[in-house]
Write a structure and sequence with these properties.
- The chain is of the alpha+beta class and 377 residues long.
- The protein folds into two domains: 7-220, no CATH class; 230-375, no CATH class.
- It is 45% helix and 15% strand.
- It contains twelve helices and eight strands.
- It has helices at 58-78, 89-99, 104-107, 138-167, 214-226, 233-236, 239-247, 251-273, 296-299, 310-321, 326-344, 356-375, and strands spanning 7-20, 23-24, 37-40, 48-54, 111-124, 175-184, 191-192, 206-207.
- It has a six-stranded antiparallel sheet.
- A hairpin with a 7-residue loop joins strand 3 and strand 4 (48-54).
């Protein structure tokens, strides 16, 4: 629709789609009751945020089909294959769509996690073309795509990590569609600039739908989307490395990424929890040097914040988040750090087993504890 100022309304839709062969429920693609979770005025006034669980995001996949067909048309133009006389661009795109077979990386998936953000914008009506499939001038489409993706991608990172504390981080290991920006307008096909990335598949585990606490997930996502940004500032420095670790196929890189997440988390959380009165830390830097935890604070041995060792910083963090489990978590971290030190100093060789699962479990637990402590009301 155009107004008297010759502006046209266009809806931008940011989309990130994860896929896994793990699934909740008795059958693949089963959406839990209450899905999708939707939030208005998030992250900005007028925006619509959705988290779609289980079922295939068919409208997005249709838009991807159109995007692929538009890309084929562009490719034909680049290599100098001109359109047949009298055959429109729409007709050529429809021919490509008829030949389209969706890749198995999209279709052979048992459960989807889809994050979308919709925003209505106004554009100069003169920038709209007459076509049904590719109807927005490339220059304005590129500008809108870059700006919207730059703004929403960090938001999607935060939402994905918050969601992982409820559904499990395994569901975020494979991105099927990576931060696409689609254009919607009544009477036209939905499309994106043809640069969407697709990746592979995951492993297979069936989970009881009853184990998915959708109410808790809704509370976590709502808090992440609506709470002041400073409530989860601690997450900003680790979100890239955490999500990269989940997707990384190389075990050594995966371990390095998870350890970096733990290192950053330990420093950030120790800063937030340093002044709490109940820090019971081992005497000295070696957890195994004593039979049980002693209070460095009581002994006058707690060093200034800027002089904390990494192990001390981690201990302060987990004592603040999980005081009853802290001793075991500190010992597990000692094992992980020992492997990391050996790796850094050349003590491990190619093929050596790294405690990736331990590092990942610690990262998952610390993130969940920090979200409960600092993000949730």
């Amino acid at each position: 629709m155009c107004d008297e100022n010759d502006l046209a309304s266009v809806t931008l839709q940011f989309a990130r789609v994860y896929g896994s062969d793990d699934y909740f429920g008795s059958e693949p693609h089963t959406a839990p009751a209450g899905s999708p979770l939707t939030y208005r005025d998030c992250p900005k006034t007028g925006d619509r945020l959705s988290l779609i669980l289980g079922s295939s995001p068919e409208l997005i996949f249709r838009a991807q089909d159109v995007t692929w067909a538009v890309g084929q048309l562009m490719l034909m133009s680049l290599v100098g294959r001109e359109a047949q006389e009298g055959v429109s661009a729409d007709a050529r795109i429809e021919r490509f769509l008829a030949e389209r077979k969706r890749p198995p990386t999209i279709t052979e998936v048992n459960w989807y996690v889809t994050i979308t953000v919709d925003r209505d914008v106004s554009v100069d009506a003169a920038r709209l073309g007459e076509g049904r499939y590719y109807w927005l001038e490339p220059g304005i489409a590129t500008k809108l795509t870059d700006e919207f993706r730059r703004e929403i991608s960090p938001v999607a990172d935060v939402l994905a990590i918050h969601a992982s504390t409820i559904i499990g981080s395994g569901f975020l290991e494979k991105e099927l569609i990576s931060d696409a920006v689609y254009f919607r307008r009544p009477g036209r096909e939905v499309f994106a600039l043809p640069n969407i990335q697709c990746t592979g598949l995951a492993a297979h585990i069936r989970r009881d739908m009853a184990s998915l606490d959708l109410d808790q997930l809704s509370s976590v996502i709502s808090a992440a989307a609506t709470s002041p940004r400073q409530r989860h500032d601690w997450l900003g420095a680790i979100k890239y490395w955490y999500l990269a670790a989940l997707k990384e196929p190389d075990e050594w890189k995966r371990f390095e990424y998870f350890f970096l997440v733990l290192e950053i988390l330990a420093r950030r959380l120790a800063k937030l929890l340093y002044n709490e009165p109940h820090h019971l830390l081992p005497a000295g830097d070696d957890v195994e040097a004593c039979d049980g935890p002693l209070s460095l604070e009581e002994l006058g041995l707690l060093p200034p914040l800027e002089r904390l060792s990494l192990r001390q910083a981690f201990a302060i963090a987990v004592l603040g988040l999980y005081p009853r489990e802290a001793e075991g978590l500190i010992r597990t971290f000692a094992d992980v750090k020992k492997a990391r030190d050996q790796l850094s100093h050349g003590g491990l060789r190619t093929g050596a087993r790294l405690p990736v699962s331990k590092a990942r479990a610690l990262a998952d637990k610390c993130i969940k504890g920090a979200i409960c402590r600092f993000t949730l009301p």
